[in-house]
């Protein structure tokens, strides 16, 4: 009988031009997971890793106590899915979301910003031991700001967010984290983002093709519940 509660998503990844080191790393993960038996964290390379990207009042977003939030603000696409953040305190206030992902991967945090020309917003990505940040001067028109990061940390939890100085306000839209050096077209997310903590290999064997000296190719299926 069909089970409507069981839903899976599948990715087919075609690798070409892998170095021997890259192939050995992939093969090592496959053996560590014992083929289809074990699970691993899979970061979707074509999705927004954050959840509730347009609903900043959700519990997934941590906000400092003096950071005021107003939703339903006009957004750059002609809708009302943006939010206005205002720091009513006397110290820097932040909003952030924590993702259980390897900190040493390459990511790009991006968001659309609009505000008073003299206002500044700091984008950041942090672990307990490492972090990177970039300060953006906003303007009266929407602009997409980006922060590429690859942190020097072995931790598997990264916090992405932004900070506002006292008395400043800014409109924000389209929070996104990509698992690549630059931003892809914005993708709205709800309760499911692009991080799958219990993904599995879809096959019991890996077939590698030697394309040339030190160059390999293979096809990998990954499945995960959604």
Give a written overview of the molecule.
With 226 residues, the chain is mainly beta. The chain has two domains: 8-42 and 197-225, no CATH class; 62-191, Sandwich (Jelly Rolls). The chain has one helix and 15 strands; from the N terminus they run βαββββββββββββββ. The chain has one helix at 20-32; strands spanning 8-18, 40-43, 62-63, 67-73, 82-87, 93-99, 107-115, 120-126, 131-137, 143-149, 158-164, 169-178, 195-201, 208-212, 215-225. The strands form three sheets. Strands 1, 2, 13, 14 and 15 form a five-stranded antiparallel β-sheet that branches. The protein has a five-stranded antiparallel β-sheet with strand order 3-6-11-8-9, with no helix packed on it. β8 and β9 form a beta hairpin. The two termini are 20 Å apart. The model has no long low-confidence stretch (mean pLDDT 94).
Write the SSE topology.
Elements: E1 8-18, H1 20-32, E2 40-43, E3 62-63, E4 67-73, E5 82-87, E6 93-99, E7 107-115, E8 120-126, E9 131-137, E10 143-149, E11 158-164, E12 169-178, E13 195-201, E14 208-212, E15 215-225
Antiparallel strand pairs: 1-15, 2-13, 3-6, 4-5, 5-12, 6-11, 7-10, 7-12, 8-9, 8-11, 13-15, 14-15
Care to give the gist of this entry?
This protein has 1 helix and 15 strands; from the N terminus they run βαββββββββββββββ. It is mostly beta strands and 226 residues long.
